Amino acid sequence: MLNLTIREQLLIALMFLLLFVLAGIWGVKYLNSQEKYLQQQLSEREKQIKQVRKLSREWETLQKTPTAPVMSQALSSFVENIARSLQIQDNLQLNVLNNVEKGTEGVKVGLDRLKLDNLFSMLYRLENHRPVIRTSHLSISISPGDRLVRASFQVHKQKSN
Fold first, then answer.
1. Where are the alpha helices (DSSP H) in the chain?
2. Can you name the CATH fold of 75-158?
């Protein structure tokens, strides 16, 4: 083995100590830079989370607010009033629809022994009403023996919250 003097041994120990201190300083600097990088990422993610929460609240608000004016009157009484104004309320049959789109309500309208002009007047008033209501599934057939028609259709409106 090498015989080193105390001075040489002390110098080697001092160099190892210096090397150890430099490695420690470099390690601490590296850890600090990683911490800063992670803090930046954390603040960016927090900003993104706040933005997502804000957009989520806006989305919930938009879903709750109607996109068009909503008719406050019950749909069945509205249809009855139109039939009464056309003096065809005796020919009218209404059934509430159960499986309709979310956020809407609907009724199935049946009209029997009706003149074609009265049917067109009824449909015209429904289709051109404001706030908007929607008619669908129109079925028209001729009553046997008379020159009258049978009609059935569905009327839908947006629910008021």
1. 6-64, 75-85, 116-127
2. Alpha-Beta Plaits (3.30.70)
| Cβ proximity of 107 and 94 under 8 Å | yes
Break the chain into its structural domains and give their ranges. 1-65, 75-158
Q: Which residues contact 131 (CB under 8 A, 6 or more apart)?
A: 68, 69, 70, 71, 157, 158
Q: What is the identity of the amino acid at 1?
A: M
The pLDDT-based confidence of 46 (bands split at 50, 70, 90) is very high
Tokens of 145: 């023996």
Q: Whole-prediction pTM value?
A: 0.56
Cα atoms found within 13 Å of the Cα of residue 157, Cβ hemisphere only: 24
pLDDT higher than 80, residue 39 = yes
Is 109:155 a contact under the CB 8 Å cutoff?
A: yes
Report the C-alpha gap between 137 and 106 in whole angstroms: 12
